[in-house]
Specification:
Elements: E1 2-7, H1 12-24, E2 30-38, H2 45-49, H3 57-80, E3 85-93, H4 96-106, E4 111-115, H5 129-137, E5 142-145, E6 156-161, H6 173-182, E7 185-192, H7 198-211, E8 215-221, H8 227-237, E9 242-247, H9 252-257, H10 261-266, E10 273-277
Parallel strand pairs: 1-2, 1-4, 2-3, 4-5, 6-7, 6-9, 7-8, 9-10
Antiparallel strand pairs: 5-10
Amino acid sequence: MKSILLPTDFSMNSENAIKYAIALFKNIECNFYLLNVQKASSFISDDMMVLASSATIYQTIIDVSKKSLHNLIAKLELKYKNERHTFHSIVDYDNFIDSINQISINKNIDLIVMGTKGASGFEKVVFGSNTVHVMQRCVAPVLAIPDGCLFTNLDKIAFTTNNLTLNNIEELKPLKDLLTLYHSKLYVLHFEDMNSTGNQKNENKEFLKIHFNNITHKNIDSYSKDSYKTIEEYIHSNNIRLIAMMRKKHSFLERLFNRHPEETLAFNIDVPFLVMENA
């Protein structure tokens, strides 16, 4: 049985991510943990004015969140009616990242699924700040679902590698599980830069050949002016359903979050984004 953590702020994009996770694992037995994290600063003055004299701000926040989670779970159970799925609600009054990590450890979370926040024009960003921070500091794999993205299938999945040699299949377990579950074709995008060597790339190819079937390889110049545009076009032209990568130094993830604003505007990921932990 899988344990899936679903952080929610009751927004439309977080609810969309929950629905994506339910559809993604519709044939798998899962414990879904719906988490809402609150903090005192989120409690506005108008709310405090209507508190009963015996109530505390803390307890009122928790009670409201518990009720909202209860209502959301009731709605999900009624809509999906999947006996393989069990829903649990968790309300925490803590730092968001600390809460995510504590629950991931205590509940042996296999995957965190959360939504991303979209914007428009010059406010366009790749991901909402909470999702970025979880990706960078989490202790469990994260699957980020773009705003409005609906589950269809995962027949084609892309995975990025760079000059660091792959040698631990356990780190790639979330990717392998999805590939196996959906009999997906794997497209491997090799980043080539000044630190790359032919041996490392060959070692990675051999490693992937041992552990995965049905692979297509493509080399990408990491430092070319249009490298991110090239990746975006590759995802769209090959109808890629999900892109996966490792979270480690000099990874695609790190470069993605440290690009110049104009690059962020030019590169808009609109497929689910799996980030796996690197030990």
